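Q: Convert this sequence to structure tokens.
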Amino acid sequence: MQLNWRLKAFDELSNYELYEVLKLRSKVFVVEQNCVFQDMDDKDKKCLHLLGFADSSLVAYSRLVPAGVSYAEASIGRVVTDPDYRGKALGRELMQLSIEKAAEIFGKQTLRIGAQLYLKAFYESMGFVQQGDEYLEDGIPHIEMLHPCKN
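A:
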């Protein structure tokens, strides 16, 4: 499946794109994971947004977070694929592109993420290494992981 990828600053997102982002994040993080939390955390305004469209449907998304917003290091967050499009390696494509774009935009530096624990093996396969102990965030087990800078 070939996706149409777009990378945009918050102010560049169209109303349609922003709606699709919030709809997909709600579909997965609130409804599918049965987690009541404040998704709109004011970080979106400071981030770049990577959107993967299949025709007119947003099916993959992440936000690229500058250093100092979530962590001392730059980060990748709100990584999500539409449940209807899973099993097509879109998550792997999304993360690989997110890592590449983060290096282009923020420079080659270590990335830190807060990963849901059940995705540890996936993130390890992408080069991330666990840093620290498990913790609960919004009732879901998480771990911090680092992706070392590759010069």
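The first helix runs from residue 15 to 32.
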